[in-house]
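Let us work through a complete example step by step.
Step 1: write down the sequence.
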Amino acid sequence: MGCPSPSLSFLRVPAIAAFLAACVGLATTTVRAANAAVDGNEFFESRIRPLLADHCYECHGAGAKKLRGGLHLDTRDGIRAGGESGAAFVAGEPAKSRLILAVRRVDPETAMPPKDHEPLRAAQIADLEQWIALGAPDPRGTDAAFPAAVAIAGTNHWAFVAPKNISPPKGARGNPSDAIDAFLRERLSAAGLDFAPPADARTWLRRVTFDLTGLPPTPEEIEAFAKDRAAGAEGRVVERLLASRSYGEKWGRLWLDVVRYADTSGCNSDYPIPTAYLYRNWVIDAF
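Step 2: predict the structure and record it as tokens.
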């Protein structure tokens, strides 16, 4: 938590420390109740590790020029071992944890980050308190030191879990048209529900046309679809819509919004850029 001087000593806590500890303790019961629904590892990865990387590793990490107070905050073993002054925290007891007293700057000599660094915001201190109240969960390996400038997302996040092939439920009622419908029907059946009846041809065409192009079908398209009763008629409609410029305009617009596309320079003069349309049309054509 910044660079203390001369060492990370939390033993000298003035009378005001006891008062602040009592204030923190008043909220402990409420915090514990709220913590019941919190995933501790996810909370550490999303809130605590980035905070430690941004504010603490400079002096309490493997890359520090001089490790302050003998305290490592960049490893699970290090943060649990504590420093020269003892344990950095008491799991489940933020009010009794030296780490919290330090970031609250109870004692100027043990304040973290030190006075020549920007103090933590109230929300960041609250995150540390909640983390300790949760029992200080830490999914990092027991002996792994992580880069000081990088906060690695939790490996249990769904994006990092390899997908698995799962067979569709058997015996689904009503002969579902595809595997996805089979899974949906299974869940609906468990809740005593079922699919809505199939839409008529005109309603289906309006829905798919609005979904893909943002526009209603023309009278001619409605009439043509009503007459096309050959197998695969729906698929041909979808392919026609995906190949239409309207599809590129609707979905390309979302990307153009992301990159903040405009026909003008955006300055006070609002001067038009004559060639801007080339990128716009390229995005539409790509879709």
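Step 3: interpret the result. Residues 1-17, 27-31, 143-153 have pLDDT under 50 and may be disordered.
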